[in-house]
Amino acid sequence: MSNEPEKTGPACPVVHSDFNTIQPVSGPRAWVLRVAGLGLLVLAAIGVVLPLMPATCFLLASAWCFARSSPRLYHWLHHNRLFGKLLRDYRDHRVIPLRIKVASVAVLWVTIGATFLAVQNLIVRLLVVAIGASISAHVVSVRHRVPSAAQAPADAEAI
Fold first, then answer.
1. Residues with Cβ < 8 Å from 40, sequence gap 6 or more?
2. Please, what is the Cα angle at 115 between 111 and 121, to 5 degrees?
3. Which of 12, 44, 76, 156 gets the most CB atoms within 10 Å of its CB?
4. Separation between Cα atoms, residue 42 and residue 46, nearest integer Å
5. Going by C-beta distance under 8 Å and a sequence separation of 6 or more, which residues neighbour residue 7?
6. Which parts of the chain fold into alpha helices (H)?
């Protein structure tokens, strides 16, 4: 397997539709995105083992940060044993497994409920609900089946 980042498939809101056209940033901004990506990846890993913490949103945000700051980390993340298949399915086929969709939305709203108990500020509460509704709408709108062989791109066997 080559160390070069692979081209992405159909358009995706998190990872650009053609990775090769993304111009990674440099300098301090790249370091900020790398650190943010690594922090988000740690949160995703914690979310895998903690039932009340979502992993998917942190994982997708981490991939977004790496796509803009480090082609090497982006490639590594998409070929990682733990997260690679989920990311490639989302990027190439825009698919999230049904059990992950259900768990993500459920945990999201449990967390929003906890926020309501912990935070009294109405503006913060409304902002959290708006963000939660947006994330829920996106997750629910994503398909939960991999396309059939007739619909899948020719390079889908590499997944």
1. 58, 59, 61, 62, 65
2. 155
3. 44
4. 6
5. 18, 19, 20
6. 28-49, 56-69, 71-78, 84-93, 98-118, 122-141
Placement of tokens 């066997």 in the chain = 157
Q: Residue 147 — pLDDT band, cuts 50, 70, 90?
A: low
Looking at every residue in the chain, the average pLDDT score rounds to 78
| Helix, coil or strand: residue 57 | helix
State residue 36's pLDDT score.
95
pLDDT at residue 3, rounded to an integer:
43
Measured between alpha carbons, how far is 131 from 136 in angstroms, rounded to an integer?
8
C-alpha 158: how far from its chain's center? 20
Going by C-alpha positions, the residue among 37, 64, 59, 63 that lies closest to residue 47 is: 59
Query: Which residue's entry shows tokens 């298949």?
Result: 85
pLDDT of residue 38: 95
Q: What is the pLDDT of residue 154?
A: 46
Task: Name the residue ranges covered by the structural domains of the chain.
Answer: 19-151
Can you tell me whether residue 64 is helix, strand or coil? helix
